[in-house]
Specification:
Elements lengths: L11 H23 L6 H66 L5 H6 L7 H4 L8 H57 L3 H21 L10 H11 L18 H11 L8 H4 L4 E3 L10 E4 L5 E7 L2 E4 L8 E4 L5 E6 L1
Helix pairs in contact: 2-5, 7-8
Length: 342
């Protein structure tokens, strides 16, 4: 008679393992089905361009903080020189009145007010003196000069102390802005690294072709330049086409946007401010694009963080962004605010 044994059932542990494995496989399959697709070259370019714009905005703030730091350092050096010279003058005045007191002593006594000056706390002697009537005209004049010099020195020391605090705050801001710029550039580079070498090369070729085409359209023809110096500054900037953009750079081997415009005008004998927001107020504003002339500055974005030269025929010359070089570009590629005629 045949045996009718029940088939052996899998153990509870084995069932659990098999169930978990199947669930994991289903989850992985689901994740793979719903995973975000690799961004296209166009999407990467749009994100990178946005990051570069944010980096440039931070760069102009960095430039402003750097300029403020340089000014404060110069002001502090000047104040410290004044304090040192003032202290020498004060010491000389004190020495003079000390000699006068010695002469009085040898002739029979020292005036009470002079005694007070020579006490252990000479800096407060005038506050304690009840009157200068007893002093000779020469003594009174010397003591008043000392008092005036002391007050001036106290004011200069206080001013220098305040500027040192401002300098400390500015240096902190400078470090923060530099870190922000580097962070944006790092994010952009990570995005670019998601593209293949072929895609990155194609992107670079597109940018170069766009710049070349803009240059071909920038024939000034009979256009009247903004001024002789404006035309000279534009010509100098055009001579720097192909020079790399570097944040905070003011030439001649690399530039940021306002560094290019400032340096070019400087070579033409004109001094303009360092950052784009200040350059926006450095001359006569030109509201309409149709009124622009070659050599005018052109200001972009609502916070005025980008600047270039108008080159004629709807084209500008500028240092565009990190990862690019000085080039021609259409004035309509960025939000136009106004022009500035220096």
């Amino acid at each position: 008679m045949a045996s009718h044994r029940r088939p052996k059932q899998p153990s509870r542990t084995r069932v659990t393992v098999l169930t978990a494995t199947a669930a994991a496989a289903v989850a992985l399959t689901s994740q793979a089905a719903h995973a975000d697709p690799k961004p296209s070259k166009k999407e990467v370019k749009a994100k990178v361009d946005k990051l570069y714009e944010e980096a440039e905005k931070a760069t102009e703030k960095y430039n402003g903080a750097k300029e403020q730091q340089d000014k404060l350092e110069d002001q502090i050096d000047d104040l410290q020189d004044k304090v040192a010279r003032g202290q020498d003058e004060l010491n000389e005045l004190r020495s003079g009145i000390g000699s006068l007191a010695s002469a009085q002593y040898r002739s029979g006594g020292i005036d009470p007010s002079v005694q007070l000056f020579l006490s252990s706390d000479p800096d407060s002697y005038l506050d304690k003196a009840s009157s200068l009537d007893q002093l000779t005209s020469k003594q009174a004049d010397a003591l008043q000069k000392i008092q005036s010099k002391q007050r001036t020195l106290a004011q200069q020391r206080s001013e220098a102390s305040g500027k040192l605090k401002d300098l400390e705050d500015t240096r902190k801001e400078l470090g923060e802005k530099k870190k922000e710029v580097q962070g944006k550039l790092g994010e952009a580079q990570k995005l670019l690294n998601t593209l293949s070498a072929k895609e990155r090369a194609a992107m670079a070729a597109e940018e170069e072709r766009a710049s070349r085409d803009a240059g071909d359209r920038a024939d000034l023809g009979n256009a009247v330049p903004a001024s002789q110096r404006g035309a000279a500054a534009l010509s100098i900037a055009k001579g720097k086409i192909g020079t790399p953009y570097v944040y905070g750079a003011t030439g001649p081997s690399s530039f940021d946007c306002s560094g290019l415009t400032q340096w070019s005008f400087a070579q033409a004998g004109v001094s303009i401010p360092r950052i784009s927001q200040d350059q926006a107020n450095a001359g006569t504003r030109i509201a309409s694009q149709s009124d622009l002339r070659p050599g005018d500055l052109v200001i972009f974005y609502s916070d005025l963080h980008h600047v270039g030269f108008y080159a004629g025929n709807g084209q500008i010359v500028h240092a565009p962004k990190p990862g690019a070089s000085v080039r021609y570009e259409s004035i309509n590629n960025m939000p136009y605010m106004f022009g500035v005629r220096i």
